[in-house]
Amino acid sequence: MGNTSLRRRLAVVLALWVTVIVPAAAAAETLRIGYQKYGTLVVLKARGTLEQQLAPLGVTVQWVEFPGGPQLLEALNVGSLDVGVAGETPPVFAQAAGADLLYIAHEPPAPTSEAILVHRDSPIRDLAQLRGHKVALNKGSNVHYLLVRALESAGLTWRDIQPVYLPPADARAAFERGAVDAWAIWDPYLAAAQAQLPVRVLADATGLADNHQFYLARGDWAARHPQRVVTLIAAIREVGEWSAREPQQVADQVAPLLGLSPAITLNAVQRQGYGAQPLSPEVVAAQQRIADSFAALKLIPKPLSVAQRVWTPPADGEH
């Protein structure tokens, strides 16, 4: 009798677990966001407004930092992230590799927030003089396209330089010890180098590249959660508008997260573009030009269509 009574109690407990605990676990959802040491997502993370908006829906937010767009989009591709941010070039390489990604929004151009640096006493005085020299860059990052366009503007080709593919921290170390002659880099690494190292800007992206920032989502996640995408874009746009109005507050808030001084951070903050919006035909066309350029240079295996990977916002009332 004792064993029968015990089995009955266990059966009741198991039934309660199945009917209460399991559905609760199934209902829980985590939005996994990849970000980098720059941009509006850093501010959104610091302010916590997205968490406040999603909490009533039973959604928590997990933030994951990456050193660059290529690494972030690889995580997106393998399913470790739902959404993230990257510059112009990483999505092209990711799409060419077959990644299931969608462009969901972009920020306005920010051409002064990426540049090609040389040492202050370097004999290299213009872009044409990069011929034969070693240039450090993060392969597949936004500065990859900047360097391509900069070389073209000087009548050079990719074969005229010696690219050295390194992530930002390693590239800075190589640049400091003189192992490379130039360094293509973006903010806030750019702002930090300008403040901390004896460098000259050989060229920024002005007149060469728009340097858009793109927000991207896994295609399957965006298809399941269109309203989550709408909420996220609205939150990014709202905090971006605040950032544009209050750059000093942004710098003071974000500097400790970046491990940089408020002055360095402010320089990077003021060079960003703010105001996330769905992609316009003009932005799609600009991104297509980048894809076509890389296909022509054989940096990606075949041509691709950017327009096929642009997310379409849901119609009003659609869920």
UniProtKB/TrEMBL annotation:
Residues 30-246 form the Solute-binding protein family 3/N-terminal domain. It comes from the Bacteria. InterPro entries: ABC_SsuA_sub-bd, Solute-binding_3/MltF_N. It holds the Pfam family NMT1_2. Belongs to the bacterial solute-binding protein SsuA/TauA family. This is Sulfonate ABC transporter substrate-binding protein.
